[in-house]
Amino acid sequence: MQNDIVISTRIRLARNLKEFPFPCKLDAKGRKAVAEKVKSAVTNSNSALAQQMVCMDLDSLTKIQRANLVESHLVSPEFVADTNGRELLLTKDNSISVMVNEEDHIRIQVILPGFDLDGAYNIADKTDTLFDENLNYAFDKRLGYLTQCPTNLGTGMRASVMLHLPALQRTKAIGRIAGNLSKLGLTIRGIYGEGSEPKGAMYQLSNQVTLGISEKAAMENLKNITLQLINQEKITRERLFNSIEVQDVVSRSLGVLKYAKAISCEEAMALLSNVRMGVIAGEITDVQIEKINSLFTEVQPAAIMVKAGESLTPEKRDIFRAKLISSSL
User: Fold this and answer.
1) SS3 (DSSP) at 148
2) 263, 281, 266: which is closest to 329 by C-alpha?
3) Contact, 314 vs 265, CB < 8 A?
């Protein structure tokens, strides 16, 4: 199954308003004006989609709550680094998030579980239409949608999939694959995108080219390469599980997760990755893959403190995390 390897699918659209400079050139008054226009586009819409959105003022959130938004992939780290004049529109099920005044005036993001590029794009397109009907987008007939960063010119779309690739990571094949992907117009990064390190063998594969290519062509390219990576991961995994050494690593990882009294986030991610690989391979039968998927997010530092309802030292977080994992498993 593809969803054994593809954790989630994301479509992100970058849009800007014609009558305003890019966010990097906006003062506080300009940012506020953009935010009000974007919010009005939602409140003045009669669409069912608009009714599902709530507006969040980042300044009203604690530092821990903002960090938790990043851990949940609802916003970028850059977005919460400077909250001045920034707003977040979010649906109740967290499937759609709209960042206002990040690198661009509007960043529409749709995340769906599993491998569902078409489904994510359809929702993103409907959300885009909601804003387009009430706002004046910056658009050029030759260049397409105008964006602050030239690499987003054209469609303004970034399509990506979150992949769990423990076998390719363990065999160090991922380095060779990453080097070849740029030639195909794709890039592979860590769990939180550009500049981040892969944790728990999680990798984000996304399109690089947005100019001179249609959304459909970009998604088709991503889809084809994703299927090839899925196939390589499966073949490599089957070969690995012929080894008693790998089977032992998987079993020991489950034992540590069940009985450890303190565990760091980094160690938890690595062990959860091993257990997830064992569940998919059929070596572990008493753990649900959905539980492992949710734990990848639940064990993050800010998520731990949100669940605990208080700020915790790293040592106390490690103890809380161990208890959480043990009770979950």
Assistant:
1) coil
2) 263
3) no
